[in-house]
Amino acid sequence: MAPRPSKGLADVVAASTAVSDIDGQAGRLFYRGYDIHDLAGKINFAECVHLLQRGTLPTRGELAGLTGELAAGRELTPLVRRNIEPVARVQSPMEALRSYVSLASGEDPDKDSGSPEANLRKAARLTAQQPVLVARYHAARRGVTAPDPDPELGIAGNFLLQITGERPSPRQADILDECLVLHADHTMNASTFAARVCAATLSDMHSAVCAAIGALKGTLHGGANEQVMRTFQAIGTVADVDRTVHEKLAAGEKIMGFGHRVYKSEDPRATHLRRMSAELAETTGDDLWYRMSRRMEDLVFAEKGLRPNVDFYAASVYRYLGIPVDLFTAVFSVSRMAGWTAHVIEQHADNRLIRPDSEYIGDHDMKWVPISERT
Ligand code: ACO
């Protein structure tokens, strides 16, 4: 008798990885052995990219080298540049990113190599280009040109500059930078698993990332952050949060931004995002989104025992930073690119095809009949 499948592969250990680790009971997350609480607000996103893709926290020299590589890697290939606008006209942000990454593979300088060195270079280019793609998409759909990147600003600062058209304050840039660190990797989440399945066929890194972007787009995964803000916008006031939560739960609907497959206590990333949301509520003088979030958090915990996941407070933080709501999941992808590519590198380094079994639940012993006799 074949073993029963685990629906949604719950509790199945699907791969070995040295990139990140979660202790779901204790609510702890580690990148290559470092506790996320020790990294958040202390390393910048470029250091985090080095840690995930290259295995160590960089020395000053290594960081300077990677920073240079990321700056050079921002340049989009001609095919991508030509297609930014036509794609932006017809595709949503995540669809467009999937298209752009697919187009980028055709002119990648390491197109025909999956060697470890080529994979590292591709990983850096993909990571460098993702924020540029989001910014160019956003500019193209509005018929404007994104401002040139400012060499004085880091990845997060330049992203905010190019999205909002305004130079961010140092604190705004730092907050987004911390968000990028917090979202960068998360063990066998759905999009990373999709990337690894694709990579394990010995397909290329761009293909694996396209698979990952497609998986991140869904509302049960990365797409939840946009839905959190859409819910708040539909509710409108703190006083109306209770009614909406009651109605949704009574109707058996899920409340976006709550629950997690692995965490049985607070998602450690939510701890930091809640703090940042509170800070931005105070500094912007607009505490509506933060107060709605707090009220919803209390209610959903009281009624369902569910805690916020990473997407919940990310929504208000991004909103306070002036990021358009339909780009929230795209911001997630800017960060998670670091983790996806690290996992593809790891998968290729010790590969075996990922091909699980299935339980057959269909009919048996069906008899073929000619088409003329079928009713
Ligand atoms: N709101 C209301 N009820 C919920 C929620 C929620 N957000 N999450 C789980 N539940 C309930 C389910 O209805 C189910 O109840 P039941 O047993 O009475 O049917 C039970 O909790 C288990 O839920 P599952 O969906 O089976 O849990 P699973 O581990 O498969 O899903 C998931 C985890 C997808 C994150 C789920 O909690 C969810 O859909 N949350 C909302 C979407 C979301 O925020 N996604 C982002 C996750 S973080 C990330 O991917 C970056």
Automatic annotation (TrEMBL):
Keywords, comma-separated and alphabetical = Transferase, Tricarboxylic acid cycle
The protein's name in its UniProt record: Citrate synthase
Q: Name the chemical reaction catalysed here.
A: oxaloacetate + acetyl-CoA + H2O = citrate + CoA + H(+)
Pathway annotation from the record: Carbohydrate metabolism; tricarboxylic acid cycle
PANTHER family in alphabetical order: CITRATE SYNTHASE, CITRATE SYNTHASE, PEROXISOMAL
**Residue stretches spanning the membrane:** none
Any Pfam family:
Citrate_synt
Q: So what family is this one in?
A: Belongs to the citrate synthase family.
**Organism for this UniProt entry:** Actinomadura alba
Query: Which InterPro entries would you find in this protein's record?
Result: 2-MeCitrate/Citrate_synth_II, Citrate_synth-like_lrg_a-sub, Citrate_synth-like_sm_a-sub, Citrate_synthase, Citrate_synthase_AS, Citrate_synthase_bac-typ, Citrate_synthase_sf
